[in-house]
Specification:
With about 210 residues, the protein is α+β, with helices and mostly antiparallel strands. It has helices at about 5-15, 20-25, 30-35, 50-60, 60-80, 115-125, 170-180, 190-205, and strands spanning about 85, 100-105, 130, 180-185.
Length: about 210
């Protein structure tokens, strides 16, 4: 789904998902209208059943956002002050909509330089669902690292020279990735489950000298 107040972005999105009647009715910018009969040839529109399901889910969106924010802000408050971890921060000049995920950063220097893998294993032994963040930085994926047979063949959609990225090109992103850990995004779970997670963190962190 896309929400925008930019007419050109909107019309380009229409051309990604539609052609013929819908595109002809809604695409008016001169340099884009010539594509209305065919669109961009990708047909990236949702199917009607998906739209109907999304419409129902949207009626529950505000409730879910509030529940998730309440639970994860509570988790952050309970974990604050523990050495070795940093919880997500919502800056004062930022309005958070919802947590897509809940990632903490691991600071090994505060826990006797315990390797992150051992910390994760210790937490998992306490029954905590915790793992490394699931997605590596985009610049390290095939699409952005110059791997043959990527989007370079689609010259109409990429009218510019693509930079091929290598490991080390974006060191801050790579560092954050290497120390990020993922926890569940609690929404409907009871607070007692969150308290169990907090207790597991406290137990592992307070006994870190036995793990080194």
């Amino acid at each position: 789904m896309l929400i925008t107040n930019n007419q050109e972005i909107y019309e380009k999105a229409v051309l990604l998902g539609h052609f013929n009647m819908r595109a002809i009715r809604t695409v008016h910018l001169k340099h884009l209208k010539k594509f209305a009969e065919t669109g961009y040839g990708l047909n990236y529109r949702m199917h009607p059943l998906g739209g109907a399901m999304a419409l129902v889910q949207f009626s529950k969106l505000d409730e879910r956002i509030q529940l998730r924010n309440d639970k994860l802000n509570y988790l952050s408050k309970q974990l604050s002050g523990l050495p070795g971890i940093r919880t997500p921060i919502t800056r004062t000049h930022v309005t958070r909509g919802a947590f897509y995920g809940y990632k903490i950063r691991y600071i090994s220097s505060e826990l006797n330089n315990l390797e992150i893998e051992l910390f994760v294993k210790a937490m998992q032994a306490e029954g905590v669902l915790i793992k490394g963040t699931g997605y590596k930085p985009l610049h390290l994926t095939a699409l952005f690292s110059g791997t043959p047979d990527g989007l370079d063949n689609f010259s109409y959609s990429l009218p510019y020279t693509r930079k091929a990225y290598n490991e080390g090109d974006l060191p801050i992103s790579e560092k954050i990735y290497s120390v990020s850990l993922s926890l569940p995004t609690f929404t409907y779970e009871p607070y007692s489950i969150i308290d169990e997670y907090v207790s597991a963190f406290e137990k592992v962190i307070n006994n870190v000298e036995k793990l080194v």
